Model the fold of this input.
Amino acid sequence: MTSADNLRAFRRDGRIVIVGASLAGLRAAECLREEGFTGSLTMIGDELGEPYDRPPLSKQVLTGWVPADGTTLPRRRDIDAEWLLGVPASGLDLATDHVRLADGREVPFDRVLIATGVRARPWFVESEAELDGVFVVRTREHAEGLQRALAAGPSRVLVIGAGFTGSEIASVCRERDIPVTVAELGPYPLVGALGAMIGEVAADMQRAHGVDLRCGVKVTRLEGDAQGRLRRAHFDDGSTVDADVAVVALGGIRNTEWLRGSGLAAGVWGIACDTGCRAMDLNGLITDDVFVAGDVARCPNPVYEYRLISLEHWANAVEQAEIAAHNMIHGQADRWPHLSIPRFWSIQFGVNIKSVGVPTFADEVVVTQGSVSDHRFVAAYGYQGRVTAAVTFNNAKWLDHYRQLIETAAPFPPPCPTPDQPVDTKPVPVDFPGPLLLAQGATVVVTGHDPGERRVTAAHQHHR
Amino acid sequence: MRVVVDLSRCEGYAQCAFLAPDAFRLHGEEALMYDPEPDDALRDRVLRAAAACPVQAILVDRLEGRRIPVEAARS
Ligand SMILES: Cc1cc2nc3c(=O)[nH]c(=O)nc-3n(C[C@H](O)[C@H](O)[C@H](O)COP(=O)(O)OP(=O)(O)OC[C@H]3O[C@@H](n4cnc5c(N)ncnc54)[C@H](O)[C@@H]3O)c2cc1C
Ligand code: SF4
Done:
């Protein structure tokens, strides 16, 4: 049989298994059917119920407008799949092409898509994390619990971590007129994602809305009362805050533990893949039957010097799912690369914050349009003289213009495209928190001398 | 009914909020908030909003009424 015959047979009655039944998994399944895959499709997911959307969980759901179980994703088409829900996958055996489930079942496949995403990083002391009133927000159950706690009218909410999710939650608290303290280890909110200049704007916004913002501090201890309810938090500068609700918003942990021993390049940074969403093995060689999409993927982007980039962005999950699905059922010559420029949004304090590109891939930033003090502006990011990203505050309609600048490697700083030239248009250093704040431990070691012997081995450490 | 808006694409022109104000609302100047499961009574309005969106960011469920139940693995 020729490989074209093989491919035709595979598209007709092959077996595809998707692990992770959320945004990326569902979209990939829909695309597989859309593009004519008629074989068997199995969706494995550890959450019960139909796939749902997460961004509303820290927005519409927490304000109380939309119920936590009211964000089920719409379907573009019937996917005619077998759903194995409520049990996590616990292993991937690439010698026999099986996914192992935690209850011992084995699910065979010809091709597999990994879309296991990210989970919330829990508070580092387990007994404190279990106190009543301590929350994370990743799933609808989390959002449901937190929304109920907010509706009960807490005396104060403490948000630990001022990234996007933490800032959105603080915004909702203020909207609901709940006193809120935000504790951030970095010098400003959002600084890790957007740098110091935008971080300063975000800090102003929080304070203007009555947030008790404390930057440069670390929460060291959550203290409970005799009933096991949170009542106080302790900071490393000796101060304390009394709060009956704490939201731990310290980012995510990629769900890759189940791939240990699989031979894939999977670790705390995600699962490395090529732009075709094919997974890499530990040695950095591309595999042919294992694909990756969504928050768990770590994909190179040619615009950013082919660096491997992990994104926790909704649009990225959708686009990678579509690319992965297409490539799973096409031959090499018809495969597509995932080359889109990252896009992200966040809604907080009544402001629509959006970004295009990779703001952390920059050495300078400049306000190119609008007015920072009005919270309506565009800032462009540049790396060695070219535009690499842009952030808009209430100026979303300009994003596409900047996307084109990024795609065409336009010179930085770019000219202001409108007459509303801002007063101060001098680029400043972008100023991200140093490696000390971001460092992670080693994840691999290389062994062997001769080129034929050199191999990479995963170094499994305990990461929090 | 079920709806999702690709807010990375949405440009905040508010056509949807004008056509189906119970399902789509502007929060501040241009941040869109929406109800992902608006009441079926709003169906026509929501469909009109989806059709009017200049960047086609609104996706409405195409499986309405013939939903295949999802089973729990252990049931
Ligand atoms: C509160 C919140 C707000 C957000 N807001 C925004 C926003 O404003 N803008 C934006 O661009 N993005 C936002 N995001 C990010 C966006 O939701 C994600 O990018 C998106 O959900 C990624 O989809 P995914 O399918 O890759 O991963 P996930 O949605 O994380 O899905 C992975 C699924 O796999 C399951 N799983 C994990 N391990 C296993 C296993 N071993 N076996 C079986 N199943 C497993 C998980 O339980 C989960 O159901 C937000 C996320 C959250 C949580
Ligand atoms: S009509 Fe489309 S672009 Fe305009 S606000 Fe609604 S979703 Fe956004």
Observations:
- Residues 20 and 37 of chain B are 13 Å apart (CA to CA).
- Chain B touches chain A through 36 residues (CB under 8 Å).
